[in-house]
Task: inverse folding
């Protein structure tokens, strides 16, 4: 049996003797079906064909031959300090699907052999050992495979190529304390490097060339973090998938600051950075402009509580046509964007403020247009985004606002056409479903006559909240609000001293223009107000075919409804006071909890339904005329009869009619409660309240 040392010596002698012949011989491919523990200098580990039943070799493959690791078997070949010279003599190692080539060197080693996938899925090269491994093959696809750097340093070549060459790698994972050099400083011309599988890990990736530009395209569909430093003054970063830049001190900076995003994906950042003011950030140093050239993408905040509040004022310039750009506050939030979002072109863009973050995020910057481009602003996620105060035209590109989930808080309000947090509000609007339409299409059937839409008809469990939180008295506005599903209009102004702290005209239930089949059975608008707030809402209607609209009231403050009140979904008062003018329809649903007040100030409205949750009780109701027939629905009813519900119905009419109403206890009609039930007794006692007896 040959010793390992003898194998090494014999191979070195063979390589020297055959050097001349090798140049003229065709490459032969042999197959490896072994494990990491098998010796690459043992010819018995190589097969002449890809089958395990094929013959094995009696001599090692010759210099210039190709080794293919058989795919789909999890096979692995490992080279170390003793065998790396043999690897360097080979033409190619093909790492096909689910296979690996481990190079474990403690000394600095150079390998000219190509390492790529060989046409059948992507295998992996694993770099181990404290030494530096320098790869020197220069073909465009010589390293089109995944790389994992677990120890030491890996240096890619990309040297000596002609201008415009594109090199292909796949994924790159770099462990903490490890380094990857994209070019040893030798590139003679500008080139492009494709990392289509993305970059991840905690180690550092550097481009050290001081004269030639490397355009690094990074793709990837996963959202693994890259927490290392990405550096290079001549490194131009283009993201066409997802890249999670979890380091706040990246130093790449090409051409005065250009970062591009060219396709769908997520661009994560730990530090967004201030343009021209900060030497480093997740997006590099002095990267003033982020170019969006295609696809929809998300800017995801990766900051944590330890990082504290984050700000950024870089310019985002969108040339990508009918797409969506999203700011996601991440898990922590506490991010303020005070830069500028610029849309170029004649198609609608959707700008989404999203996230389930625990701390509010703030959009302090502008939303600008170029020529006729416009943006539809959407709020998604359970977190809160704040639109800071504006008194200029910096948000004139907003063509409509949709609040589907969570809270969109705004700080100042103006009449339609005026400058404020919510933009100018033009005469008609295009919404997110019309992104592919050009703004110039004035006949567009998707144009609507409302500025804001609350609710998400695709998920009726979600509620969209539009919150006014100014630090002074509010303003009157006729920016119409549409409700589809569940919406909330909240007044949190902290210096409200008069009845016009917030005065809004125009709310209606609508049919979703993008899909009429999405009309819910009921839409609800909740009016919310702090204890000091006094708010007014005028004109509440329903479009033909739209869902009935129910008005709910929460919060300790007052809301007053006036003008045309043509909603048909009923009234639900949980807290505070709701003052209602003249109703044009009956009330098929009425609920007023204990401690809350419903006060109809116009002509008496007729109620044919009253809902009471015994855990909440019944509050004060005035101005209601009870119909001659109706239903009293009681949930959480006590087992013993009769029982009394304290309340104040003294300013209502038709109280005697209640005695003839049907009672439902926890959803069961009184006539069906039991065989001994003969009738239901309902009376209103001026001292005790509503008395219910079933006998």
Result:
């Amino acid at each position: 049996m040959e010793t390992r040392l003898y194998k090494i010596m014999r191979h070195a002698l063979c390589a020297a003797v055959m050097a001349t012949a090798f140049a003229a011989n065709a490459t032969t491919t042999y197959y490896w079906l072994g494990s990491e523990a098998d010796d690459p200098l043992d010819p018995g580990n190589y097969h002449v064909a890809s089958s395990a039943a094929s013959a094995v070799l009696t001599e090692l493959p010759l210099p210039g031959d190709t080794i293919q690791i058989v795919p789909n078997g999890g096979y692995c070949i490992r080279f170390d300090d003793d065998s790396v010279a043999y690897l360097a003599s080979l033409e190619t190692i093909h790492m096909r699907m689910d296979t690996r080539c481990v190079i474990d060197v403690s000394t600095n080693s150079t390998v000219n052999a190509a390492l790529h996938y060989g046409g059948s899925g992507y295998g992996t090269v694993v770099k181990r050992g404290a030494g530096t491994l320098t790869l020197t093959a220069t073909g465009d696809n010589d390293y089109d495979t995944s790389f994992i750097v677990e120890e030491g340093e890996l240096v890619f070549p990309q040297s000596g190529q002609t201008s415009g060459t594109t090199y292909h790698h796949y994924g790159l994972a770099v462990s903490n304390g490890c380094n990857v050099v994209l070019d040893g400083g030798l590139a003679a011309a500008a080139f492009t490097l494709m990392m289509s599988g993305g970059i991840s890990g905690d180690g550092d990736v550097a481009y050290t060339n001081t004269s030639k530009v490397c355009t690094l395209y990074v793709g990837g569909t996963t959202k693994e973090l890259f927490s290392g430093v990405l550096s290079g003054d001549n490194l131009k970063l283009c993201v066409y998938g997802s890249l999670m830049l979890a380091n706040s001190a990246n130093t790449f900076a090409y051409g005065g600051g250009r970062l591009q995003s060219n396709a769908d994906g997520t661009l994560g950042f730990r530090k967004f950075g201030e343009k021209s003011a900060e030497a480093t950030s997740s997006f590099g140093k002095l990267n003033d402009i982020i170019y969006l050239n295609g696809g929809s993408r998300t800017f995801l905040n990766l900051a944590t509580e330890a990082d504290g509040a984050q700000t950024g004022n870089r310019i985002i310039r969108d040339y990508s046509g009918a797409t969506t750009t999203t700011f996601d506050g991440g898990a922590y939030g506490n991010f303020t964007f005070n830069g500028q979002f610029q849309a170029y072109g004649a198609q609608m863009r959707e700008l989404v403020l999203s996230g389930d973050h625990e701390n509010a995020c703030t959009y302090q910057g502008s939303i600008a247009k170029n020529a006729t481009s416009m943006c539809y602003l959407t709020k998604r996620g359970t977190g809160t985004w704040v639109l800071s105060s504006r008194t200029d035209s910096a948000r004139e590109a907003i063509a409509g606002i949709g609040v589907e989930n969570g809270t969109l808080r705004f700080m100042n309000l103006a009449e339609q056409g005026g400058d404020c947090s919510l933009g100018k509000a033009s005469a008609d609007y295009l919404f997110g479903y019309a992104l592919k339409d050009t703004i110039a299409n004035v006949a567009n059937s998707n144009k609507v006559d409302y500025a804001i839409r609350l609710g998400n008809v695709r998920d009726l469990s979600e509620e969209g909240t539009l919150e006014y939180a100014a630090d002074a008295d509010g303003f009157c506005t006729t920016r119409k609000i549409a409700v589809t599903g569940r919406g909330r209009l909240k007044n949190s102004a902290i210096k409200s001293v008069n009845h016009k702290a917030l005065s809004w005209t125009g709310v209606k239930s609508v049919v979703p223009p993008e899909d009429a089949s999405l009309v819910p059975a009921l839409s609800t608008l909740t009016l919310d107000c702090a204890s000091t707030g006094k708010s007014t809402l005028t004109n509440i209607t329903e479009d033909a075919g739209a869902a009935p609209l129910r008005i709910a009231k929460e919060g300790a403050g007052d809301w007053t409804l006036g003008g045309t009140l043509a909603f048909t979904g009923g009234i639900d008062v949980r807290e505070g006071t709701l003052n209602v003018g003249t109703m044009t329809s009956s009330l098929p649903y009425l609920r007023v909890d204990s401690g809350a007040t419903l006060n109809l100030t116009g002509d008496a409205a007729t109620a044919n339904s009253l809902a009471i949750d015994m855990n909440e009780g019944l509050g004060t109701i005035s101005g209601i005329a009870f119909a001659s027939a109706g239903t009293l629905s009681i949930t959480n009813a006590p087992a013993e009869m009769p029982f009394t519900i304290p309340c104040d119905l003294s300013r209502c009419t038709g109280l005697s009619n209640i005695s003839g109403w049907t009672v439902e206890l926890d959803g069961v009609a009184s006539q069906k409660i039991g065989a001994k039930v003969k009738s239901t007794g309902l009376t209103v006692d001026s001292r005790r309240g509503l008395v219910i007896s079933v006998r």
Summary: The two ends are 103 Å apart (CA to CA).
